[in-house]
Queue: 4 jobs
Job 1
Amino acid sequence: MNKKYIAAASAAAVMVSMISVPAFAVDYPGGSQDTRISTAIEPTYTVTIPADTTVAFNALSTDFGAVTLESAQIDPGKAVKVELDASGSLKNAADADKTIAYTINTADNTAFTSASYQTAGDTTALKIDITQEAWDAAFAGSYSDTVTFTVSYVDAE
Amino acid sequence: MPMKKTAVLLLTVLMMCITSLGVYAESATIAAQVPGTHTVTFVIEGGKVEANGTPVDHTIELDRQRVQTYRLIPDDGYILDQLIYDGEDVTEQVTNNCFTAPPLIRDTEFTVIFRPSRLPQDSSKPFPQSSTEQSIRRTSTPSSQTRDANTVHTGDFNEAVGYFTVLLVLSLCLLIVLTGHKQEKHTTS
C-alpha cells in the first residue's frame, strides 16, 4: 500500500514539473511598430476653509479667515468650486427666536456665496459683519450658528 | 438567481454614484456672547445722584436693556448745570430733578454738574463788578470764590486809604490857612 502511494506521488511530481506555460512569438514583417503607452493621473487638490470663530460683543466686523486652494493638480478646463451655506442669523442658545443677524463678506464687502479656484494659492479672505443696530437690539445670552462649505470639482466657467 | 443579479446590479450602480460625486463638505461655527449687565460710571460735581432711592457710588451694575430713572440732588445752594449721558447732553430731559435713561445697551458714563444758584456777596467791593469779572466768577468752583478779606485787589476801596485821603486834604487846608495867615501878618506889619 505504501509503495502505491509513493508511486502516485512521484508520478504527480513528474507531471507538475512538465507543465510549461506556452509562449507565443509574434512575427513582424519588418520595419517599426508603434506602441501606445497610456496612463491616468487622478486630479488632487487641497482646500482650507475658515475655522470656528467667536465674534466679540459690539464688533462690527470680525476676521473669518479665508478659503484657499492650497495645492492643486486638476485637469485643464476644470476648477475647484467652494460654496457657502449660511443662515445669516446667530441663534440664542436659550431661545432660538432671539437672533442676531450677520453677513459673511469678502474684503470688498461683497456677500460671499461661492468661488471657483484653478491655481494653487488662490484665496478669498472672509469677514463676519454685524450692524450696530443688530447688537443694540440683541438680548443677553450666548449665540451661535453653523455654516457649511461645500467643495466640488466642476467645469471651469 | 434573479435576486442575486439584481443585488449585484444595484451595488454596481451605487459604487458608480459614489465615485462620480467627488463633493466634500465641512462646517465652521460662529459664536457670540451678549453680556447680561452693563456698568454705569458716575462723575458728579456739587451734589449727588440716587438710583432707586439709594445714592450711587462711582459705578453701578445694571441689567442689559434696563430703563433706569435717576434722581439728581444738588448740594445746598446749588442747582443743576449740565447732565451728559452716554456722551450726549440730556440736560433738557431732566424734569423735577429726575432723569429717565434709555434702555441700557452698553457701558455708559453719567456726568452731572451742579453750580451755585447765587454768587457770594463781597462787602469790600461797593463798585459795580464788570461783566467779565462776573463771568469768571460764575465758572470758578465754590472753594475758589472764598476770598481773604485782608487781601487787597485791583479796584478794591480800602478804608485806610479813605482815612489817609481825608487827613491829607485836611493837612493841605491847614497849610493854606496858615500860609494865608502869615501873609496877612506881613502885610499888616
Job 2
Amino acid sequence: MVAPQLNVNFAGVRFKTPVVAASGTFGFGREYGELFDLSRLGGICVKGLTVKERHGNPPPRIAETPMGILNSVGLQNPGADVFIEKELPFLRRYDTTIIANISGNTVEEYCELAEKLSEARVDMLEVNISCPNVKAGGLAFGTTAKSAALVTEAVKKHSSVPVMVKLSPNVTDITEIARAAEGAGADALSLINTLLGMRIDIETRRPVLKNNTGGLSGPAIFPVALRMVWQVSAAVKIPIMGMGGISKAEDAVEMLLAGASLVCVGTALFSDPLAALRITEGIGAYLERKRLDSVSQLTGKVQPYQL
Amino acid sequence: MPELCLGRVADNKKLTETVRALTVEAEAIARRAAPGQFVHIRCGAENLLRRPISICDVSGGAVTLVVEARGAGTDWLARREPEDVLDILGPLGNGFDTGGRRILLVGGGIGVPPLLYAAKKAAGVKRAILGFQTEHRILLEEEFKNACDEVFITTDDGSAGEQGHVTAPLKRLLDRGAADAVLACGPRPMLRAVYELASQYGVPCQVSMEERMGCGIGACLVCACQTRENGQLHMRHVCKDGPVFRGEAVVW
C-alpha cells in the first residue's frame, strides 16, 4: 500500500502535513529549530506580531492548572519590521508554510500589518481578533460579529495572500462570529484561541498571574475546542484550522473528524518539544490502519447522532 | 544547543527533610553543562509543565540535581529511585562567568546548589556565604568546604553559623576587599540586597533569577525579566537570556 497523503490544500495554500505549530508557543521557530528540523512541520504560525515592538505583561505570566496552563504574555514581540528583516529570512530556509499572526489596536494597524507582511511574502495571514491578554484591540474585535466583519473586510483589502481569522471562544455564539468573518471575505478560520481564566493564591490572596487573568490552554480545553470546531464547520464553507489542547495523534484525528482541515499544536510542545512530529506520525498510522489515501478524507467525517 | 534525552537515575540522596540530591546519568547534557545552567524535566504524565532544576554538579557523564519537594512536580521528582528514567531537556540558559581572581559565592536556601559547580569550575580564590532558615535546612556544607577556600554559614534563627542574613558576612568581606566578583543565587529579595551591597563596593555581581517557566527554551516568552541595558528597557527571558543576569542590568 502507498503511504497515505498528508499534504493539505488549505484555502489555496499548500501544507505538506496537517500539523502546524500554534502561534505564541513557538516564537519564530529558532528555539525549536535547535531540537528538530522545522521542515518536518506542515506550517508555523509565528508569535503574534504588532506594528510596534511590545514588551508584554509583567511576570508571573504563567500558571499551571489541572491539565492546562494559563498565560498572560500580552503579545510580547519585536514588531513586524524586525520580524520581516531578521526572522522571516531564517524561517524561509525551511520547507514549511509560514503564517504571520497579526494583532492591531485599531483597524488601520491590522491593515498596515497585512500590507507589510503580504508584501514580505508570508504564505498566509492569521488575523488575531481574540487575544485575551491585551487592553486595546485584541479580544474586543473578536467578540461582536460587526467588529469581526469590519476587521476581516479591511484586512482582505490590504492583503495579497490568503487571510485566516482566529476566533475567540469567549463569546456567546462562536458560529455568529464565524459567519460574519466568512461573509466579510475570510479565506479560512482558525479556532479556538485561549479561554479566559484565573487562579488565586489563597495564602497571599493575590491572583497567580500579575495580569490577574489569562488564557487557558492545554488538554483541559480540548473538548470545548472540538465542540466549537464542529459547530463552526457546520455554519461555514471556508476551511478551518482547529486547535485547543491537542496533545496526541488521536486528539488531532478527532479535530479533523469534527471539521478541521489542519490542526495546530501548541501547549503540548512544552511537555514534549517533539509533540508535533509524533502527532504527524500518528495521523499517518491512523490513515494506514483505516486504509485511507489522504488526510483530507477525515475532515468533517464525524457521524453525529440525529436527535 | 540543548539536548532532549532520557537520563537514568543513579542515586537519590536525602539532604534535608524536603530536599533530595538526584544523580542522573545523561552524558549528552553532562558533557556540555556550564555552571548556572539548568535542565527542564518532565515530571510524570499528570504534570503538564516541565520543572526547571539547576545543575548542582557534574561528574563524568552524570549531573547532580538538587530538588526541593514543594509542589506536585518537584514532589514527583524527589521521589524518583535508582533505575528510573527521566525525560530531560538541557543544558539550558546562560550560566555564571566564573572568571576572576577572588570569587565570592552567595547563596540562599534552595539557591545554594548551582553555586557548587561554579565553585568547582572557578580557578581563583573561592569563598562562599550560604544562608538558610535554620540548621536542619543547611545544604551541601561539606561539599562547599571541599570546593572553597572559606565558607560562611548564616541562619535566620541562629541555630547554626552566624545569626542573620547573608549580607552581614558579605559586607565584612567586601570591607576587606576580599572579592573581585560576586555570584549569587537565592530568593529575589536576597539577590537584590546582595547586588546593591556589592555595587556600593564597585564589585560586579551576577545574579541567577527565578521565574515560572513554560517551554524552557525561549519560545513561549512567559518567564519575563525586565532589564535596562545601555539605558534601554528590555523584557528578557530567564530561560534563554538568563537565568544568570548582571545585577546592574536587572530592573529590581
Job 3
Amino acid sequence: MKKKFGYRVNILLFLLPALFLFISVLIAPIVMSAYYSLFKWKGVGPMTFIGFQNYSDIFTMKTVNAGRTLKNALLLAAFSTVIQLPFALWLALKLAKGIKGERGFLSIYFMPVLISTVVIGQLWIKIYDGDNGLVNVALRAVGLLGEKDMIVWLGDKNIALWAAFVPILWQYVGYHMLLMYAGIKSVPPELSEAAMLDGCTEGQLNRYIIIPYIKPILKVSVIFAVTGSLKSYDLIKVLTNGGPASTTEVPSILMYRQLFLANSYGRGSAIAVLLIALCFAFALLINLAFKGDDTI
Amino acid sequence: MSSSAKESRTFAMTAGRKVTFSSVIVYIILIIWALTCLFPVYWMFTFSLKDNAEIFFRNPIGLPENWIWDNYKTAMNIGHMDKYFLNSLIVTVSSIVLTMLAAAMATYAMTRLVWKGRKMMNKFFMLGLTIPIHASVVPLYVVLSRVGLLNSYWSLIFPYSAFALAMAILICNGFMGDIPYDLDEAAFLDGCGVWGIFFRVIVPLMIPAVSTVGIYTFLQCWNELMFSTIFNSGEAYKTLPVGVQDLCGEHKADWGPIGAALAIATIPTLIVYVLLSKRIQESFIAGAVKG
C-alpha cells in the first residue's frame, strides 16, 4: 500500500513542472481573461462588474473602434487566402515537379520566414521611406514621380494599410509554399505516373490528382493564413504601430493600446477573448468547409 | 531495361526535361521571386557598410565603395547590440532547457508509468498546440507585475517554455516510443527506481530529441515580439527584437549603424539556417501537420 502511494507521488512529481507551466501560463489566463473582460478595471484598485459592456464598448466607442481593426484583419485574411496561398501553391507545384535548382529555390523562398519581423519591418520602412526609400527613388528614376515629390507610403491614410500588407504577405509565402511542397512530395509517384501515362497534361495532373491529394495540407494553410491574419501583430507594430490615425490598426495592436495607453484592462481582455473566439470559430468553419466539399 | 524503368524515364522526360517557352517563363518568375526574397537581406548588408551620403545619393543599391566597418562598432557601442544578443541567448537557451526537461519528465510519466488517465493527460497537453499567445497577455502581465517579475529573464522564459511545451511533448513522445521497454525492466531488476530509470536510462537516450525540440523552441523564442515588448521592455533585460526596434526608433536618421544592428540580429539566424536548413524546414512542416 505504501509503495503504491509512493508511485503515485512520483507520477505527480514527474508531471509537476509541465503541469505548472501549462496551467499557469495557458489555462488559467484564458479563464482570467474571460473574467477580467466583465469588469471595469485599471489594473490596480477596485474592479467594477459591468457585465458585457466592455464587449459593446469596444465597438461603439469612437476612440476604440474594434470594428475597424477587425475589418483590417479580415481584409488581410482575404488577401492572404486569394493572393498569397495560390501563389505559394503555384511555386510549390513548380518546385515539386523536380526542376533544376529545386532545393536552392526552396531554401531561398523560406528564408524570409526565419528572419526577425523587426528586421524585416525596419528594412521595409527604409524601402518605403519618403525621401530616400527605394520605392520612391525607383519611381523618380523612371519619371513616375517628380524629382522633389514623395509618397509617404506608411504615413498616408489612404495607402498605409495596403503598403503594410505587402511585406506581411511577402514574408510568409515561403512558409505556405514549404507546407504545400512537402504535401506534394508525399503524393505516391505511381499515382502521377499512371495519370501521365493515361495522357494527363500537367494542368490536369495538378487539378485532378495532386491538389485533391494535398487537401489536408491546403486546409492547414488556409487555417494558418486566416487565424494568423486575425492575430497579426509583429509587422504592423514595427511598420506603423497602427497609425496613421489608427487606419492600420489590427486587434492585437488595439489590445496593446487599451492596456498600456488607455489603462483599460477590461476592454483589453474583451478584445483578447473576442480574438481567441474568432480564431477558433474560423478554424472550425474552415474545417467544415473542407469536410463538406469532397468533390474537388 | 525493364518496361517500368523505361516508362518512368519517359515520364521524367515529358514532365521535366522539355525546354519550352512556358518553362522558360516559369524559370523567370521563380528567379524573380528568389531575388525579391534575397534582395532585402542583400540590401541590409550593403547599406550597413555605407554612410548616409552614399546610401541616399551616390549608390543606393550597389556594393559599398568604402566598407565602413565602424557602423558595426557604433551599433555595439551606442546600440548595445552585444548586451541584447546575450539577453536573447540567455532567454532562448533557458527556455529550451526548461521546455526539454518538463516535456521529457511529463512524457516519461505519460508513456512509461502505468496509471489511469495518462491518455487524457496527454490530450490535455495537446490543447496547447491550438491556444494563441494572445489569450495569456493580460493575465500574465497582471500576475508578473504583482510578483515583481516584469522586466526580468523569467518574464519571458516561463511563457516561452509553456507555449513550446505541447510541441515538445509531442516530439518527446515520438523519441521515447523508440526506446525499448526492456531497458526499463533491466534497470528495474538492477534496483533502479523510477527516478533512476529516468535519469540513467531515458535521459541519455533522449539526447537526439534535444536538437529537434531545441530548433523548434529557438525559432519560437529568438524573434518573438509580443511578449517581449509587453513583459520585458526595460533596458537591462530586453532581447534583440525589442533592442533593435528601440534603437531604430531613436536613431532613425543614421541608416548605416541601423543596418549594422539589423545585420547583427540576423546573422545568427542565417548561420543556423545555412547549417540546418533541411532540419529547420522539417520542424516547421512537423509543427504545421501536428498543430
Job 4
Amino acid sequence: MSSNLKQPLVAALRPALAALIGLSLGVALTAFAGENPWQVFMVILRGALGTPYDAGMTLFYATPLILTGLAVALPYRAGLFNIGAEGQLLMGALAVAVVGVLLPTVSAPMSLLVSVLAAFAAGALWGGIAGWLRAYRGSHEVITTIMLNFIAAGLTSWVVLALIPSQDSQNPESARISANYMLEHFSAFSSAPVTWALPLAVVTALLVWLFLRFTVRGYELKATGLSIDAARFAGINVRFMQMLAMALGGGIAGLVGIAEVCGNSSRFRLGFSPDYGFIGIPVALMARAHPLGAVASALLFAVLQKGTAELDLETTYVTRDLAAIIQAMVVLAVAAEGGFTWLKWRRAKPEVKNHA
Amino acid sequence: MSNTPYAVEMRGVTKAFGSLVANESVSFSVRTGTIFALVGENGAGKSTCMNLLYGLFQPDSGTIHIRGEQRAWRSPREAIRAGLGMVHQHFMLAGPHSGLDNIILGDEPEHKGWSFLPRWARPISRKRAIKDLDDLITKHQIAVNLDQSVDVMPVGVQQRLEILKLLYRNAGILILDEPTAVLTPHENEAFFASLHHLKEQGKTIIIITHKLREVLSHADDLAVLRAGRVVATRPTAGLTEQELAELMVGRAVQLIAEVPPAPALGPVALSCQNLSLSSRGSKPRLNNISFTMRAGEIVGIAGVEGNGQSELLELLADPRFYFGHGEGRHRLTASGNLSVLGHDVRSWSAARLRDQGVSMVPEDRHRQGLLLDQDLTQNFLLGLAQEPQFNHFGWIRAKAATRAVTEAITEFDIRPKTPSALAKGLSGGNQQKLVIARELARQPKLLICAQPTRGVDVGAIEFIHQRLLEARSRGMAVLLISSSLEEVLALSDRILVMYEGHFIGECERGVDEAHLGRLMGGGS
Amino acid sequence: MLEYLLDLAAATLRLSTPLIFAAMGGLISERSGVINIALEGKMVVGAFAAAVITLSTGSPWVGLIGGGLAGVLLAALYGVAVLPLKANQIVAGTGINMLAFGIPPFVAKILYDVTGSTPAISLAERFSVAPMFLAVLLPLVIWSFLSHTRGGLWLQFAGEHPAALAAAGVTVRRIRWASVLTAGFLAGVGGATLSIFLSSAYSRNMTSGRGFIALAALILGKWRPVPVLFACLFFGLADAVQMRLQGIQMDGFGKVPVQFIQILPYMITIVVLAGFVGRSRAPRALGNS
C-alpha cells in the first residue's frame, strides 16, 4: 500500500529526471560550438527570468504551451495521439481573426465570449474531423492529424491573404481585428503581452483535471483509453468518446488564438507559431498526460523557448535554434525513459503472457 | 554419438523469474521415437520448461541433454540446428504470405550462382523448395496447398503447415504446445493419426497439454508438472483419468458442482430468430441461429472455439453496431430478429441493453473485462458509472463506489482485500471474481457469461459455478458460452452445440458426453 | 503544347525525385515494422549535409553519399531510442524531426557564421539528371529485393509476424536495425537531392513538408514499391502544376489559389485513409517493437 502512495511521486520524478538529462545533453552540445555549456545555461535562465519583462515573455510563451499540452494530453487519455494541435491552433487563431475583422462592432464583454467560442469551435472542428475519421472510419489519427496540419496551414494562408488581407502592411498577415476584442496586458510584466489568456489557460487545465478526475464522462473517456474493448463491453460509446476527446483537445488548442491574436499581435500573422503544437507533445509527455502537470511542464518549455532567444545576442556561435535541439533531446529522453525500466528488469522477468 | 535411448533429458533444471520460481529442479527423459506428454494446469510451468528446451530461455541451473549430449543453447536457432522444432500454441505464421514462404522462412534454398553476394542478399529459389516439400508431403501424407496464403487456410491446415515446417527443417524432435486447443474432434483424430505416423518414422514427439484423455490414449510416457516441479514421471499405461487429474491438481477433485433444483421458468429473456452475421463475399460467421431462453434457466453454448461463439457474444453485446448501423471498418452486418426481455433490441446500443438489465462477462477478461492498470474501485465502476447509485448529475459518487467495491470484495472473497490494489496484480481467479461481482451487482435479468472460468484456479472455479447456480435460483437467465465441456455439462439446463456458425444440435441436462463431443465436431 | 507537356513531365520527374527516395526509405522501415514519421527530419539533415559536403569537396556524388550518411546518423539515434529503449515510435519520431530542424542552423553558424542556409553551390558541382534516374530505378530494386531475396523475406516477416521470424532463428532486432538505418540513408539522399539537384544551396525550410508527403505516398501506395512510386510521381505532378499556376489568372476564377493545390496531396491521403477510395493495410506489427 505504501508503494501505492509513493507511485505518483515516482511517476512525476522519473520524466522530470529524464527531461533534465535531455536538457543537459542539449546544452552540452554547445561545447562543440566552443561555448561554455554552463554559461549557455545561465544565459538561458537569465534570458527567461532575469527581468519582469523577461518573465512576462516566458509566461506569454507558456500560455499556448499549456493549451497545446492539454490538447495532446486529453486525447492521449482516451488512447489517441493528437499530433494535430498545430493545425488546430491555426484554425482557432483564424476564427478569432475572422470574427475580429468581420464583426468589429461587438462590444467588450461580449466580444471576449464570441472570440473564445469561435476559437474553441474552430479548433474543435479540426480536432473533431480527425476524431470522426478515427472513430467512424478507422483512419489512424497520427496520419490524419499530420495531414490536417498541412491543410490548416494552406487554408489559413489562403483565407488570411485572399479574404481578410492586411490593409496597412505588406507583411503576410490579416487585417487588424477590432480593438473591442483586444485583451489588456497585465502591468506587472512591463510591456510583455501577458493577458487574461494566461489565467484562461490555467483554468482550462483545472477544468480538464476536474473533468477527468471526478465526472462520469471523464471516467468513460479514460476507460476508453485504458482498454477500448473493456469500455465497449461496459456499454461506453467509445466512438463518441474518441471523437469527444479529439474535439475537446482541438478546441483547447484553438484557444491559442486568443492568446496570440487578442492578446498579442491583434491579427493573424502567417507563421506566428514556433511549432507550439508540436512542443505540446513533450509538454504532455513530461506531465504523463496529467492536466495540472502540463501547466508545470509548459512553464519549463517556455523558459527554454524564451531563454534561448537571448543566445543570438549573448553568445558568438549559438543561436536560438538551440531551443529546437534541446527540446528534441528532452523529447527523446522522456520518450526513452520507459526503456530504462525495461533494461533494468530485462534479466529479472520476462513479460508474463496471460492467456484467457 | 552415444547410444542412449533418450532423445531429450532434462536434469535438475531450475529457472526463476525474479522471486517466481517457474521450474524447480525439473528432471525427465524422453525416449527416442515415442510420444511424450508434459501435463499440468495453467501456470504449472510447462511453457517455461519447453522454452528452456527450445533455447528461448537459459536455465539457472541444471542441464539439458539431447541424444545423450549435454547442450546449452543461446538461442532457438541453435536448438533448431540440433534438430529440435516447436509448434507454438499461437501459430507462428504470417497471414498475408503463402504457405511456402512461411515454411522456408529462415531456411531458404538459394539460386545457384549468387554466392558472391552476402547471404541476406542472395535470391531465393522457391522452385527448389517446392520440390523438397512435395517429397515430404508425399512421404508423411500431409495435405497442404503451398501457394495459398495462410489467411485463408483453416486452422487445421495451418497446424499441418507448422508441422511440415519442422519436417522441412529435418527436425527429429517435435515439440507441440497445446496442439488440440483449436481443433474439432474430427481434426483431432486426423492430427493424432499423423502424429503416430511420424512416430513410426522415428520422430520423437513431445506434446504439452492439459487434456487428460488425449494423454492417456496417445502418449507413451508422461511427466506431470505442478507448481514448477515434476510430481510424476511414468509410462501412461495403467493410469486412470481420475489419478492423473489428482496428480495435476494435487488433491482430490470434484469435477461436477452440486446442482440445486431448477426454479420455475419465467418469461422469455432472450430470443434469437434466424440470426445471421456475415460480411460481403465470405461465408457467414453466424448462420441462421434460432433459440429462446427463459428466466431461471442456464443455457450453455458448447463448441470448439472459433465456431461463431465470439461473434454471437459481440453481437449480443452491441446489436446496434451490427444491425445495419455499423459503419467504417466493420463490414459485418447482422440480419434476423433479436429480442431481449420482450424488447426488439436490434437498434439498441450496448449502454441501453445494460440499462434494461443485461450484464455480460466477456470471454477475455484482460482485454474486455478489466482496466488492468487501474485499481479495484475504478474497475468496479466499469459499466456501472452511469447507474444513479454512482452518478450524481454527471459527477462520480466516489464514496459510494468505494463502499460498493468493499462489499463486493467481502462477498466474493477477492484478494487482496484493498480497493486500491491494481487489477493487474490479482490472480486470474480473483480478477474473474471481480468481473462477476461487478456484473451481478446490477441484479441483471439476463447474464451473458463467456468462458467464466478460463485460466482460473480450481477453488475459484467452484466458487464461480456456485454463484452462477445461485443466480439461476433467483430467477436470472444465464447464457453460458464455454469451450470447456465439463463446465457446460455441469451447469447447463439445456445445451446448444455450435458448429461453423450454426446450431448443430440441442441436448438436455445429463446428455452423454461422447454424443456432445461428436456434435462439436460437426457429426450428428 | 507538346513542348509544354514534355516540360511538365520533366518537372514532375525532377520534383518527384526527393519524394521517391524518402518514400522508399519509409517503405523499408515500415515494412520491417518500424514507424517512420521522421522522414522529414532525415531529409533536412540530408539536404544540409549534402550542401556542406558538396561545397567542401566539389563533388555532388560525395555530397549525395554524405547526405545519406547524415540521415543514417539521425536514424541511428532514432534506432537507439525505439529499438533497445523501446520509446514510443511516434513520440521519438517527432523528437527526431525537432532535432533535425535545430541542427542545420546550429552547424551553419559554426561553419559559415550564418544561420540557416549555406552559400550557393556552383552549377558545375550540381547534379543535372543523375538522381532522377536513380530514383526511378530504386523502387524496382526494392521490389526485387523484397520479393526475391532472403533479406527481403525476413524484412517482410519482421513487419508482419516478428515472432515467427524469431522462431525461425532470425534476429528481428538486427533486421529492424538494418532497415531503420537504410531508411535513414535513403531519406538523407532524398534530402540531398533537394539541395544539390533541385536547387543550389541548403536553405531554411527547404523540405517544406516533403517528408510528410513521402509518408502520404507510402500510405497511398499501400506500402508497395511500384504503387508508391506512382503516388510520388502524382504528388510531384501536383507540385509541378502548382508552380506553373502560381500567379496565373484564369478566366472567371481570378487567381487560382496556390494553397489549394499545395494541400491536394494531404486531402487525397485523408480521403484514402478514410476508406472512401480503396483501403490501405499497414504491416501488422507496425509500431510494436
